[in-house]
Design a protein that fits this description.
The complex is a heterodimer of chains A (152) and B (302).
Chain A: E1 14-22, H1 26-32, E2 42-50, E3 54-62, H2 68-71, E4 82-87, E5 90-96, E6 102-104, E7 107-108, E8 124-129, E9 134-137, E10 143-145, E11 150-151
Chain B: H1 14-29, E1 40-45, H2 50-62, E2 66-70, H3 84-91, E3 97-102, H4 107-114, E4 119-124, H5 130-144, E5 151-155, H6 162-171, E6 177-181, H7 190-199, E7 203-206, E8 218-221, H8 232-238, E9 257-259, H9 280-298
Helix pairs in contact in B: 1-5, 1-9, 2-9, 3-4, 5-6, 5-9
């Protein structure tokens, strides 16, 4: 019997590991952080077993360190995400994401009569509830709830 | 308040609202002044609203200002496919202030962020119509002598009625007790009741108001529109319940006044018009003074 070749997602020397991303939202996280538009080495695994999430994804980005403000942008799609900051193969810092007070340009307003759905306006919301996330549109003042949230 | 826009009633603090009301009082005493001489004001009505437009244009004309604009999007570059962004960037070169009515919600906020001149929201879809709210507040204060601790009855379409939502939010600053009277299908939405709950204000909901009308300081009537009902039979059942008649006013308080944002259809019977408690036409007149006060505040003239 042949020995199964092990494909290792190797550890990174310097960079960021984003763990506990819901598998279904992996590509949204990639999009929100703009990982599809950078030249750094990125490896990711998805549909990995997770006791907490069922199926999770993990992303390892070499040579990139995020500002809190930037990383919190993924809170809408990966509220339980955990970050490990790696320097010289060691975890030097752990971070969790926090739902920010304001959301700019990530979600779509669910009101079909909102100006943001007619003209090219960057959406802006005030977060009115962080637990079961609900967003109040800066323009039409209507509430978009988590169940109705669409990521742009 | 110079160079600010008025998009939503929440843009103004309580002090600023009271300042506008005091200024409105001044304009009521002296509505014809040359304060806007040399000023050009654009009235952009992307959907027709004759009443609101005439009220603004009357307010501006009495102060000697000039008006440019359109009364219907069909008569403007919008019909050629121009974006709101481009319309505003163009028009704001021609005027000192923009008054805008638009069917799309949030359009006024967006315009105020693009324009270099102040923008007054004259209604953005079902969202806000703050000048109506301010003239309602003025009418309430004028007839009651105060804004605090009043009992306000809101009657009719409380679900879609933009004016009742804005007025309710604004009045919640003055410890108001609310009575909401509407058919089941057109009840005050939960988000607004939650807003009052959070402030600890009292409100009561009813399907009929004949028994409780004697408690009202203000009755704010709105139109129950047939097209709001999914079931036409439901409309037929309730259409006469929310009609105010003179005979119902017998036991009302002496200070009680009836307000209506107009246009009225049949929800206030014509026999109410001659009752001194009917205030809706004076309310419309107050709109002119209120708009004079708002325009002069935002231009830094007063």
């Amino acid at each position: 019997m042949k020995e199964a070749k092990q494909m290792s997602v190797s550890a990174i020397q310097n960079g960021t590991v984003i763990d506990h991303v819901p598998a279904s939202n992996l590509f949204k996280v990639i999009q929100i952080l703009g990982l599809d538009r950078i030249d750094n080495q990125i490896t990711f695994g998805t549909n990995l077993e997770s006791k907490k999430l069922g199926r999770k994804a993990i992303i390892k980005i070499s040579g990139v360190f995020f500002e809190d403000e930037d990383i919190n942008r993924i809170a809408l799609v990966a509220p339980d995400a955990k970050l490990n900051i790696i320097k010289d193969y060691e975890v030097v810092e752990k971070k969790v994401v926090e739902v920010p007070d304001n959301i700019v340009g990530i979600a779509r307003c669910m009101n079909p009569k909102c100006i943001t759905n007619f003209e090219s306006v960057t959406t802006r919301f005030k977060v009115v509830s962080k637990k079961n996330v609900s967003l109040k549109c800066h323009y039409c003042e209507k509430i978009t709830t988590q169940e109705n949230m669409q990521i742009i | 308040m110079k160079n600010r826009s008025l998009v939503s009633i929440d843009d103004f603090s309580t002090e600023e609202i009271l300042r506008i009301l005091d200024l409105t009082e001044e304009f009521e005493k002296e509505p014809t002044q040359k304060l806007l001489e040399g000023k050009v004001i654009a009235t952009l009505f992307f959907e027709p609203s004759t009443r609101t437009r005439l009220s603004f244009e009357s307010a501006i004309s009495r102060l000697g200002g000039k008006i440019v604009g359109f009364s219907d999007a069909a008569n403007s570059s919008v019909s050629k496919g121009e974006t709101l962004n481009d319309t505003i960037l163009t028009v704001n070169n021609y005027c000192d202030l923009i008054v805008m009515r638009h069917p799309i919600e949030g359009s006024a906020r967006y315009a105020s962020e693009i324009a270099s001149v102040p923008v007054i929201n004259a209604g953005d879809g079902a969202n806000q119509h703050p000048t109506q709210t301010l003239l309602d507040l003025y009418s309430i204060r004028k007839t009651q002598g105060r804004l605090d601790n009043l009992n306000i009855f809101m009657v009719g379409d409380l679900k879609y009625g933009r004016t009742v939502h804005s007025l309710m939010m604004a009045m919640s600053r003055w410890n108001t007790t609310f009575n909401f009277i509407s058919p089941e299908e057109l009840k005050m939405p939960d988000e607004f009741k939650l807003y009052l709950d959070n402030l600890g204000l009292k409100y009561y909901e009813h399907n009929d108001f004949t028994d409780i009308i004697s408690k009202a300081d203000i009755i704010y009537m709105t139109r129950v529109q047939k097209e709001r009902f999914s079931d036409p039979i439901e409309y037929e059942k309730v259409k006469n319940v929310y009609v105010l008649r003179n005979s119902m006013l017998k036991n009302t308080k002496p200070n009680m006044r009836i307000l209506h944002p107009l246009p009225r259809v049949n929800e206030i019977h014509k026999d109410v018009d001659n009752n001194p408690k009917a205030y809706y036409f004076e309310q419309a007149l107050n709109g002119v003074y209120t708009r004079q006060a708002i325009i002069c505040s935002l231009l830094g003239i007063k």
